[in-house]
Amino acid sequence: MNELRDLAYKNAVAHGWHEENLSDEHFLCLVISELMEAVEADRKGMHANRDIFEYYMKQRRRDDDEFIYAFKHDIKDSVEDEFADACIRLLDLAGLRNVDLGEVTLDDLKCSEGFFDWTFTESIFFLVCNLANTNFIETHSFDSCLRVALMEIMGFCVKKDIDIFWYIEQKMKYNELRPFMHGGKAY
After folding, report:
1. Which tens digit of pLDDT belongs to each residue from 18-63?
2. Do residues 104 and 1 make contact, with C-beta atoms less than 8 angstroms apart?
3. DSSP three-state, residue 104
4. pTM of the model
5. Helix, coil or strand: residue 15
6. H-helix or E-strand containing 58?
7. In whole angstroms, what is the distance from residue 27 CA to residue 143 CA?
8. Domain limits of the chain?
């Protein structure tokens, strides 16, 4: 997890996302916005076309422009993409704050219990409430709050048969190829 953390943070710095000192609440709100985008993607039935993406990418050696093309057509703005964004934002924040995320296996994530039998939107509401729960943040270390949030999102993905590590890898590659501040976003 720390390797992913370092990659996400390094890419964010290279793209200008840490030019000013912003609060933890700012970054957590952006994670929440990604989860809300996942809800919107789910409402629209927008799921990634991983099989088509992989088929296209394996036909021959693809350059960066072809990767971007395939990503935009088969993954971008899907439920899976938004979950990857939420995880990358948490990984980046962990890198910014130098939080040790430790080791996590798929088996660890499969053992997660709790809200996974709820509807998609109920589950996202639970995740958002946990991210915004100031009582939890005040009574636990910030490090543990970040780890818990990341494990809950990843655990939810595993329960929904979303290979979140694969989607994070693809989204991080896509983000590396984007322009500085992703072409003019304010934050």
Report:
1. 999 999 999 999 999 999 999 999 999 999 999 999 999 999 999 9
2. yes
3. coil
4. 0.92
5. coil
6. helix 50-58
7. 14
8. 2-181
